Amino acid sequence: MDIRKATPRDKFSLSDLCTDVQTLHAQNHPDIFKTPGSADFAVSFFEEMLADDATNIYIAEENAEPVGYILCKLIERPDTPFTFAMRYLLVDQISIRPAVQRHGIGSALLKQAETLARELGVSRIQLDSWAFNTDAHKFFEHEGFQKFNHRFWREI
Fold first, then answer.
1. What's the pLDDT tens digit per position in 21-56?
2. Which of 4, 24, 64, 74 has the fewest CB atoms within 10 Å of its CB?
3. Kind and range of the H or E element at 19?
4. Mean pLDDT, the chain, integer
């Protein structure tokens, strides 16, 4: 397996890789998430992300075939009366093709995010996950992530 930084030429592959996790979200919350209509549904989103200096995207490949990706954003929050200034790396998206999950690809992509965080001088990586995605929760906890916040909603 190889991991490399994504380039603008990867926008179609990234969109295609994104369909798996997007479909999972749409199945569990169809009132929030859109079902991808085609493999190129998110090309313009990835064009924008690839042009953003605060965003880094890495692609995992096996035999030169994309099998997963991770999208990381540098977040910088100013000091406020309530919280200290914060600077952290947000794993905004991570997706691995279902057929190759549990083969170390997700772990390798998170290691790449850790390397990026060190290069940026950041000491914290954060991510979030929807409550229904318990397999992802187990994976993130196995990778050393700790829960630190809970969000609630109520329909009215």
1. 999 999 999 999 999 999 999 999 999 999 999 999
2. 64
3. helix 11-28
4. 97
CB–CB of 52/75 below 8 Å? no
pLDDT tens digits, residue range 98-156? 999 999 999 999 999 999 999 999 999 999 999 999 999 999 999 999 999 999 999 99
pTM: 0.95
The position carrying tokens 């390798």 is 108
- Cα–Cα distances in angstroms (integers) from residue 102 to residues 98, 114, 133, in the given order: 9, 19, 15
Q: Identify the bridge partners of residue 91 per DSSP, sorted by sequence position.
A: 72, 127
Q: For residues 53 and 17, is the Cβ–Cβ distance under 8 A?
A: no
Nearest C-alpha neighbor of 22 from the set 11, 33, 6: 33
Taking the chain, what is the end-to-end CA distance rounded to the nearest angstrom?
A: 48
Query: Which is it for strands 86-96 and 65-77: parallel, antiparallel or unpaired?
Result: antiparallel
Q: What are phi and psi of 104, to 5 degrees?
A: 90, 0
Residue 46 is given by DSSP the state: H
